[in-house]
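Supplementary notes for students who missed Thursday's class. We covered one full example, reproduced here. Read the sequence, then the structure, then the short commentary at the end.
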Amino acid sequence: MELPIKTETIGLNNFDITKIISLYSPALPYHNFNHIIEVLSYAKKIMQDCATEHIIVDEKVVNIAILFHDAGYHEDHASLGFSTKESYSAFLAREFLKEKNFETNIIDQIQSAILATEKNGSFNKAEAKVVRAADLFGLSSQYETFLENAHKIKAEYEFLVGRKTDWEDWKLATIGLLTEFLSREIELTAFFSSNEDGCSQFHKLANINLKKLSVQSNI
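Structure (token representation):
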């Protein structure tokens, strides 16, 4: 798999990337390593916008955090003693980076950026904001892409719980969850920041997709 970043700029080599890829299950329809490549691409664009708007971001922290932010998603995090999938991913990142002799303060920043992708995660620093923004960016995509991702996520949920779920029930629960994710503006670049009407362009596009999904029949 070709990454949209140069691994040497983040202190990792091809063998490291292979090990990180192994933390993702190709059996998952959505949270597989292709999702990581997509989020890295989104982050690259967001960080270009940050540079244009004179927002300083540590690209190394952002890119490594994204590489790990859904690591171990296929595993039962609760049985391993973790309250969320993100906290387990942050743990896997710490263990990996400690072995690579990364500085403690860098590891801490990377973990914080991963935890920023939690529903109620904290995202005060620019790096955490970029990671959260990149992870959620797909919500503002064209509706056809948004709907395709929604079906992947439903299939993944059914795979993980081992049973089928009703489309309308799943849709209602998912819209509720995503609405919670969207309850706070990220306040980063102009696209992700509140404007005169108190709503960012990102939120407007994402909410349009949620409204379309609410009346979408199963296909």
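Commentary. The chain is about 55% helix and 0% strand. Residues 138-214 form one domain. If anything here is unclear, bring it to office hours.
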